[in-house]
């Protein structure tokens, strides 16, 4: 179960202000951040994942990103909208890296590898993957280990309908086990597949409920 709190946030790229707000807090649940191109969804997710600098404080379960960055990041799994990996590594090599870092067993990932139809491709170099296969690999890696908060940027883009159903099942299962989710999507998420607790949008550098 999580408590995520952002306070006194300012985020700029050069002179371009992206966020400026006092407070935003979340507890356990599945949340959806919607919005058009360039509104700041990816920037917010990178901030929460500890991958881009900003002014302000970010605290997850009493652990501060700025004061305890390693402990903070170990509670979060972030999957990029358009993952990119070195072309010369194989899917299994990348997965093994995640398994080692998160001290997880390969059996834990096997059912997701099978369900996403990736078993026959995991020994191939990712340079040969389609964009949908890259996305599936990134999701397989994101779900490795015991994670409190999953931050999935555009998890549905490039994957087919069958894979989307698998993704919904995994999200539901992990949510039932206590994990929380921040999802972004341009498309309407199929709300009947996921118990979305709240939908947010970014308006004038603030995060507002829809
Ligand atoms: N590294 C960067 N350097 C400078 N400006 C950036 C950088 N990353 C994003 N921006 C700008 O910040 C704004 C928000 O971008 P961001 O990628 O967070 O939006 P988004 O809502 O995720 O967009 P999309 O839906 O198109 O992916 C945009 O105006 C973008 O040009």
Automatic annotation (TrEMBL):
Q: Which domain of life is it from?
A: Bacteria
* Coiled coil residues, start to end: none
All copies of domain ABC transporter, residue ranges: 4-207
Keywords assigned by UniProt? ATP-binding, Nucleotide-binding, Transport
Recorded GO MF terms: ATP binding
Output this protein's name. Answer: ATP-binding cassette domain-containing protein
Please name the source species. Pedobacter gandavensis
